[in-house]
Amino acid sequence: MGGPASYAQVVPKARILKSALLTPDKIKEMIATPDFKDAVAQLRDSLYTQASEAPTIEEATRQLEAAFIRILEKLEKASPPAGAEIVVAFRRDYELRDILTALQRVIVGSPGLQELPSYHVEGSLLRRLTQDPEALASHTRFIEALEGTWAHKYLALADKIYRETRNPMLVSWAHLYGSLDMYTAQLDENRQAGALHRIICTIVEQRVAQSLIQAKVGGIDSKLVEQLITPAKRCGLDVAQLKQAYDREAVPEDLAASIRDAFKYVKLEGGNIGEILASIRRTSRMALKSAIRAAFESYPFTPAIVAAAAAMIRIEVEDVNTILTSITMKLKPDEYTKILIIDK
Q1: How confident is the model at residue 6 (pLDDT cuts 50, 70, 90)?
Q2: What φ, ψ does residue 301 adopt, rounded to 5°?
Q3: pTM of the model
Q4: Which helix H or strand E contains 71, and what residues bound it?
């Protein structure tokens, strides 16, 4: 885990990042701004300055996520090994999503990389793929091109899913396994670190709860679902019990009622799918923000402070993107602000 001295560089950086977050007043100004151009301009002089002149929501999303990845790279460089591995999990989570999206596009015959956020980050695996044009002509070649990288085992799972189902749309489900596996891998060495466990397992519970509901909606086979959520055992979730409930309940609403007691940090409330998913998002954000505050207020020289900083920026990026997307869709503030957690 490393001694206090090994965190000498990253603790000040984490605190600087915290002080550089958008203020609640700035967030409220964005929400109150009906014009996308004016709303995105609120990002000037923030951690996401490059997004402040984005002409479209698509470009704003790319710039926000690219800024997030660059922030993570700086945190990683300043962190001792145990902390750096946690930051890597946050960064690779986003990168894996883009890689699997690219693979899916190759399978359906419409490859494209440049609009994916991690393509715009120097040294990303998507950038590496541009050096091998044949990788975009065949999904088999795509996977071979990334052999020997951290992503290859997750691509192998995606390939297995595709070969068994012949459904390109299911390829992206490999992201669930990869995300859970990368986050929880750090708990093996730090399982006594309660603050770290609380941060990581809140993220894991949110992913699992949300995915179970979405999988039931999509009619995903229960054996595949069980395989995809297996890494969540490291957070104490009873995967076998969750599969039994998934098999037993015919509709998502009944599934939510059946599994809600399995989770410590998130709640599955509501009478329909939309309300249930909104409840998962909101309660997980509340729990995660609480865990982040606790990490900053407690003894800082542990991997938890690094996880807290990474999670803190991730929440802000996702919330800003939600605001900008909602403005683009001409939604009224009361139609989307209930899923945001704005500090007072």
Answers
A1: confident
A2: -85, 55
A3: 0.92
A4: helix 57-78
